[in-house]
Amino acid sequence: MRIGLCASMNVDDLSMGGSELAPILAEMRYDYIELSLAHLVLLSNSELNKVITRLKQSELPCESCNNFFPSSLKLIGTDVNWTKIKEYARKALETAALVGAKIVVFGSGQAKTIPEGFPKNSAYQQLIELCRMIDPIAGEAGITIVIEPLRKAECNIINTVEEGLQLMNDASCKNIRMLADYYHMGIEKEDPNILLKAGQDLRHVHFAKVQGRSFPLNVDEDLCYAIFFENLKKIGFNQRISIEAFTNNFYAEAKQSLALLKSLVA
Predict the structure, then answer these.
(1) For the residues 191-210, what does the mean pLDDT come to?
(2) Would 138 disulfide with which of 128, 175, 197, 257, CB 3.0-4.6 Å?
């Protein structure tokens, strides 16, 4: 398993996707960085080349991107513009490929929140249609999109890995698989044994201490850490785990979290 870090929660300015953390994470011996795709898409060609150069110079790859769709691009409801969504998805996935990403995380809670009064079944069908529309674009870019279930406080549809798996199966797309986020699972009190059901369809993990969505620091702070990682091993998970957490002491806690996760995957 490879261990990386989501830059989006630990930089003051995301205009360059969080890439300024790359040399710091490289020095700490992280395996990769996860950048904010919605911000990378806004860059000019010269600015994007600066990001790519920074990654090369730091010798730390960007292997995954989160923040797929911006909150301004609505994916559900009566005002969905499929042409605009498809154009954005193509540009975003091509951009992700340019920076080296193989995984793009589809959480995008604000973009896919069901508007008040809109039928949930219709919203779900729109998500299936969306998945089927962006699937071939992802394939052309050599990218796997992973569905990220979010806690109910952030989105009102697809809140558990169980529900994400159902969407994945109903959409039946070649290039769309699953993500498990330890924090969201904890908030929603989802049984970690759902990982056993996900099996080989689980392609990416986000990890944070449930309390405060903070950096995990010690195996004893949460007895479910061991269960979660044991289940990852049972399904033969050999993909990427990105720490996605807040901290007021980045340098110390990023190092300590990396050491903890290395011990848990060993």
Answers:
(1) 99
(2) 175
